[in-house]
Write a structure and sequence with these properties.
It is a single chain. This protein is an all-alpha fold. It has one domain. 74% of the residues lie in helices and 0% in strands. It is built from ten helices and no strands. Helix 1 packs antiparallel against helix 4, helix 4 runs parallel beside helix 6 and helix 6 packs antiparallel against helix 9. The longest helix is centred in the first third of the chain and has 26 residues.
Length: 194
């Protein structure tokens, strides 16, 4: 299998909208409830913790599995980094949802775990800290994304992984543009500390 086919398969797999599919199992359409997002946060808010956790795991797997196997299949940092970026693009701009999708955080976490377990551990701790202090999932996600490429640079000293993490952070920023506006206007929904 050459790189182009692997990237195409990665995009198609990452495009699977697990949040939407699981909401359909409950007889609901997650796009029409809560924030309208198909990600784990909105699924948790609308359908409960178990459903939200399942979506989190499935969305993270879309990033982890292709990136992890790319490491053993290609053994080329550039190729691995391209797979990582495409996985997040697939989730955020799904072919099955007319190139719309989630905000990329869970899939990016899966990618980060595959690229650098140490970096992922640091970012998870940072995310938890910001979330518990602020109560905002979006703020924790935005700040964690902005920090991820800096941390992976110092931990792995790998320019390809650093660039991949930076590009992914830009995608996450773009997908959170409405959240950023609500944070600035103090109208963002708090997940904690209501």
């Amino acid at each position: 299998m050459d790189l182009a086919i692997y990237l195409l398969l990665t995009y198609i797999i990452a495009s699977i909208p697990f949040g939407l599919l699981i909401s359909k199992l409950f007889g609901r359409d997650i796009r029409k409830e809560g924030s309208g997002n198909i990600g784990a946060t909105n699924v948790t808010r609308v359908l409960g913790k178990k459903a939200g956790f399942l979506v989190l795991i499935l969305d993270a797997s879309k990033g982890f599995i292709p990136t992890y196997y790319a490491y053993y299949y290609f053994q080329d940092y550039l190729y691995i980094s391209l797979v990582a970026i495409i996985a997040v693009i697939g989730h955020c701009f799904s072919i099955f949802m007319k190139f719309k999708g989630g905000k990329g955080v869970a899939t990016a976490l899966g990618v980060l775990i595959a690229l650098s377990g140490k970096t992922a551990f640091i970012i998870i701790l940072f995310w938890l800290g910001v979330f518990l202090i602020s109560g905002y999932v979006s703020l924790a996600s935005i700040l964690s994304a902005s920090l991820s490429w800096v941390v992976i640079f110092y931990v792995e000293n790998n320019i390809y992984y650093t660039i991949a993490a930076f590009i992914i952070s830009l995608i996450i920023f773009y997908k959170h543009k409405d959240n950023i506006n609500r944070l600035l206007s103090d109208t963002e929904h708090r997940f904690l500390h209501k």
